[in-house]
Amino acid sequence: MRHANDLSFKLVTPEDAAELLIFETRERDWFEQHIEARSEHFYTPEGIAQHIIECLALNARRRMSPLLIRDKGAIVGRANLRDMHNGHGKVGYRIAEQACGQGIAQRALRHLIGEARCVYRLSTLSAIVSIDNRASQRVLEKGGFEVGEALPEYSLVADQKIDCVVYEKNMKITTQDSAV
Predict the structure, then answer these.
(1) Torsion sign over Cα 73, 71, 107, 23
(2) Following DSSP, what letter does each residue of 40-72 receive, concatenated?
């Protein structure tokens, strides 16, 4: 049984580059079964360092919150708020294959929702997910997201154009939320 304090969510830093490169390289095949492939350059020390710098530059402008998910200190995933502007943001997460099915994505989404609401004061969140990715859809639905716009042939995964759907969550505080 996983203990709540085994997981942590921390802003990525340049000091994480070597460990993040190992994580991303190890999980590459798994991730690329579900999401668009990253460029070859990403999987180099220079590429991962550049990626972190770009993420932190966006974070400094309050446009992104790039988080590492750690379990007992080891990276098991990533969670991001991104494209934040005008009260809207997008959520995304990627969980290591061996860590799937343990509630980590659900915990990551709850963390992102809390950060979106309390730190960034966002009023709506969205996520784009493949119509074939039922696990991620269930995580979003449990998090209070609702199915929105269909995106035919939106993404290229494993050399196949795939259909996706937008999930949305209204973050406006209601009297029901304040009573909880």
Answers:
(1) positive
(2) GGGGSHHHHHHHHHHHHHHHHTTS-EEEEEEET
For 58-73, the pLDDT digits (tens) are: 999 999 999 999 999 9
Cα-based distances in Å from 134 to 27, 30, 34, 128, 139 = 20, 16, 11, 12, 9
Question: Which residues 6+ apart lie within 8 Å of 68 measured at CB?
Answer: 9, 10, 11, 12, 16, 20, 75, 77, 78
Say how far apart CA 98 and CA 111 lie, in whole Å: 21
Exposed/middle/buried for residue 166 (C-beta within 10 Å: 0-12, 13-18, 19+): middle
pLDDT digits (tens, 9 = 90+) for 21-31: 999 999 998 88
DSSP reduced 3-state for 123: coil
| Max avg pLDDT among 30-34, 119-123, 162-166 | 119-123
